[in-house]
């Protein structure tokens, strides 16, 4: 009973917060403006082939961004996603070389992703380790295992119908086949985060873990399941990556974690947890993806694209905070409590 | 005043003594692992610890030690700098470009350090003034600096042939088994360790990392210390860049990419916790030495190099897990002791 009323009060409060909602909208609007401008002014942007490239190349990031958003909302992070994807691709290649049918390989890969997520989640929740340190460790470990499994080989001879699924698009449209499972996962993640008690618990845990625990949220189990979901989707992405680029190598998806984190943060998901919307994350993902696509079309070098990504990332976190600080400072000046602050600050210094 | 001061004075030496012992245990543990590993390798392959072998071990560790010591200063203040790999790359190229144009080697090193400090200043300003999470900001500057680096360098590269021979010799030679680079790194290490341990401002780095809020209330200039940590980290990454050039003589636009993860691993294996306020740079230097030594040990005992990365990662996990378990133990002991003193006072 309490669960059904909680979302409403919480939503009211988040509407009052305002600034976060505005940032989502800003990113969404930026994406819209970018798309409109690109359709009208950039040659070759609007044709079906380019759009399918754009979506196909962005899908790995878009896939992992879904569980990553939920994880970051709950105040944790997973940097091992790229390595998990690489490991799942490597295992896929190795098993295929060993002669297993692909119908058994893919479930094994997905199961492997669950295990990877479980390892991360258990280390974080049972031992109470910071997820950043744990997943930097597993980032190296999973990639290393991928290297052990597949060595320097690359496997390319997957069955044609699967390769077609990985790189083909729905007849008559620009939408890749693989966008369909993504859309399903998107709906699932959106419903879980924004319309279920689980989602509200995630926000609660991210805002204050202790308070959430005292109000009856099973924090550890919740976080563990989020790590498992992230591992699962990462492995799925690894399978997709190998099929999409028709190559399973141990170094597939290297550095993907930074792109995912950049996109999610750009979408207004607060790294401290407790804030953000899935719509913002998706807008962030496609804003970065579309921007890179457009810059390539108008012959901006890959190097300049990296700079733009970095600047966007810094601005996306700096902008809202500076605005908030300014408004706080203005409010403080208005209430004239300023004289108290320097007095409190100088007293201990003078005492020592 | 005295009544409020007394319990503090009683509590501090006890907890510090215990904590110190644990930290020392930590460094000893790394040292023991390192010595055991080297000894085992030496028994297996008697050519391993030849004069050249020792020199190679030290040379390999030098650059990582420098960057990791800088990173440790930042992590101690409960922040992180992910841009060190990019800074190393761009400063190495800057020094190389300067030398290629006939510049003075010493000036080239100064230039690299200054450039690194400049990037550190940028990071520090964004983190301390903007008050944005360090992870996000330095992830952004990782991209930005790498991008600028790539635009500037393009497909050019610096090779050992265009550098002054004196500079290259400095990167390779040394006093018998002791390379000059390692001597330089050791000097930096001792200086930083002395500063962090004995200077008031050095202690404030730890205070800040333990509890930024409490440190601020106690009159620690929080923003200035964070800024200083980032500048030092950038400067050391710059110095490492110049030494990288001297050691390898070969720099292109990919130099140092992905290095940040190795550096962070060395810091964490070395016992500096991500939560800030603990660890020592000696531990970090040992951690860096351990990580780079593994890379030399595995091939020489016939393990394929494909195992290196997995072992690095697992080592990091084991290190932080052991740390955590130790910390829980210590907390338990402290709590018990506090309970005993409380009951003793009441009784």
Feature tags:
heterodimer, A: 352 residues, mainly alpha, ABC transporter involved in vitamin B12 uptake, BtuC, disordered N terminus, disordered C terminus, B: 347 residues, two-stranded antiparallel ribbon, 13 helices, 1% strand, globular, ABC_transp_permease (chain B)
Brief account:
Helices cover 78% and strands 0% of the residues of chain A. With 352 residues, chain A is an all-alpha fold. Chains A and B meet through helix 6, helix 12, helix 14 and helix 15 of A and helix 5, helix 11 and helix 13 of B.
Fold and architecture overview:
The complex is a heterodimer of chains A (352) and B (347). With 352 residues, chain A is an all-alpha fold. Chain A has one domain: ABC transporter involved in vitamin B12 uptake, BtuC (Orthogonal Bundle). Helix content of chain A is 78%, strand content 0%. Chain A has helices spanning 2-17, 19-41, 48-73, 81-97, 102-127, 131-150, 160-167, 179-195, 197-207, 209-214, 219-244, 256-266, 278-297, 302-335, 340-351. In chain A, helix 2 (19-41) runs parallel beside helix 13, helix 3 crosses helix 12 and helix 3 runs antiparallel to helix 13 (278-297). Chain A starts with a helix and ends with a helix. By secondary structure, chain B is an all-alpha fold. Chain B has a single domain (54-324), classed as ABC transporter involved in vitamin B12 uptake, BtuC (Orthogonal Bundle), CATH 1.10.3470. Helices cover 78% and strands 1% of the residues of chain B. Chain B is built from 13 helices and two strands. Chain B starts with a helix and ends with a helix. The chains are: A mainly alpha (352), B mainly alpha (347). At the A-B interface, helix 6, helix 12, helix 14 and helix 15 of A face helix 5, helix 11 and helix 13 of B.
